[in-house]
Amino acid sequence: MANINIVLFEPEIPANTGNIGRTCVATGAKLHLIEPLGFHLNEKSIKRAGMDYWKELDVTTYINYEEFLQKNPGAKIYMATTKAPRTYTEVNYEEDCYIMFGKESAGIPEEILLENQQTSIRIPMLGNIRSLNLGNSVAVVLYEALRQHQFDHMTLEGHLTKYEWEKE
Questions:
Q1: Is the peptide bond before 36 cis (omega within 30 degrees of 0)?
Q2: pLDDT per position as a tens digit, 54-94
Q3: Which residue range forms the structural domain that includes residue 77?
Q4: Which is nearest to 145 in space by CA: 81, 77, 83?
Q5: Distance CA 60, CA 33 (A)
Q6: How many distinct structural domains can be found in the chain?
Q7: Which one has a higher pLDDT value, 6 or 18?
Q8: CATH number at residue 59
Q9: Is residue 133 assigned to a domain?
Q10: What is the Cα–Cα distance from 116 to 112, expressed in whole angstroms?
Q11: Buried b (16+ CB within 10 A) or exposed e, 144-161
Q12: Would you call 106 exposed, middle or buried from its count of C-beta atoms within 10 A (0-12, 13-18, 19+)?
């Protein structure tokens, strides 16, 4: 089973983190939060965005980037940034990889990006757009990583509530 890890570096907006938490629960991904956070984890807005799924979330917090690295030695970390030299579809995501996203106002610090050039990735956009919403960016890259592992632990077929799909 692919154990994908989503890392948020100093997230600032509670609703984004709540939405990302919900996406992690829906996909079986683990969430890692690197402090300082721009909010408290007990805020209503984070729970509202994560809905009733927040209690099911596998989430770990770290006091800083150094502690994150120390507690996850040897982790393969992909750095999602608008500044990366290649796209998120050009890499093969390992089963236990980490995909890091920066804070909404500034992204991942360039010092960290320079140390991780080979694993820096970007989502293509038109040139005059600064960035996508953080929650959308996480979903795009996370689902590509899961697709590469054939969604191995996920439900692939949906069912109607009141009707049955016709057999093809």
A1: yes
A2: 788 999 999 999 999 999 999 999 999 999 999 999 999 99
A3: 5-148
A4: 77
A5: 6
A6: 1
A7: 6
A8: 3.40.1280.10
A9: yes
A10: 6
A11: bbbebbeeeeeeeeeeee
A12: exposed
- 141 token code pair: 């890259």
Q: What is the pLDDT of residues 110-120, one digit of tens each?
A: 999 999 999 99
Q: For residue 75, give the amino acid letter.
A: A
- Structural domain contains residue 153: no
CA distance 68 to 111: 16
Written as one string, the DSSP assignment of the chain is: ----EEEEES---HHHHHHHHHHHHHHT-EEEEESPPSS-TT-HHHHHHHGGGGGG--EEEESSHHHHHHHSTT--EEEE-TT-SSBGGGS---TT-EEEE-BTTTBS-HHHHHHTGGGEEB----TT-----HHHHHHHHHHHHHHHTTTTTS------SSS-PPP-
CA distances from 59 to 4, 56, 74, 93, 165 (A): 13, 9, 19, 20, 37
Residue 55 is which amino acid? Answer: K
Q: Tokens 């109607």 sit at which residue? A: 160
On whether residue 64 sits in a domain, the answer given is yes
Q: Is residue 167 part of a domain?
A: no
Q: Residue 49 above 60 pLDDT?
A: no
